[in-house]
Amino acid sequence: METLKGEHIYLRALEPEDLNYIHAIENDEHLWELSNTQTPYSRYILEQYLENSHRDIYEVKQLRLVISTYQHQAIGLIDLFDFDFKNNHAGVGILIQETQNRQQGYGKEALQLLINYSFNQLNLHQLYCNITEDNQASLNLFKNQGFEIVGVKKDWLFSNNKYKNEYFLQLINN
């Protein structure tokens, strides 16, 4: 689908050969705060997840796509989650795995592709995300794509022995 192809990256469906990549991401404790994960995932559970990843977004209420370079290197993941087709909105999550691939424009391009796909193919009215107050890179990414901070959840997450606020951002398709 051309709507998922950008200048430097493209978004693609999960494949069985992504098992090791997904396993590495889901079991990296440094990333657990981003997904509110508390426990590791087994290869068995992730294999089942991959086997069911073909299911329709209207059925499973989630769409996870791999951010890939044109050299076919997976560099991250971008998700639509809590897909609500009655109210036409979904949450967005994005992760660029390796530090050297961050701040290169890949996240911006992936988010632009997903926004376009969400509004023009899925006919969503709005997208939202939740970002901790100390994740300035993600705040900048989403705000630069038109997301607005519309609320703050005080002391929402407990991490490294302290509570953190989490911002709620929305992008409404007018």
From TrEMBL:
InterPro entries linked to this entry: Acyl_CoA_acyltransferase, GNAT_dom
Range of residues in the leader sequence: none
Domain of life, per lineage: Bacteria
GO MF annotation list: acyltransferase activity, transferring groups other than amino-acyl groups
Record carries keyword Transferase: yes
SUPFAM superfamilies the record matches: Acyl-CoA N-acyltransferases (Nat) (SSF55729)
PROSITE patterns the UniProt entry points to: GNAT
Alphabetized Pfam families for the sequence: Acetyltransf_3 (PF13302)
Keyword Cell wall biogenesis/degradation set for record: no
Keywords associated with the record: Transferase
Limits of the N-acetyltransferase domain: 9-170
Full protein name: GNAT family N-acetyltransferase
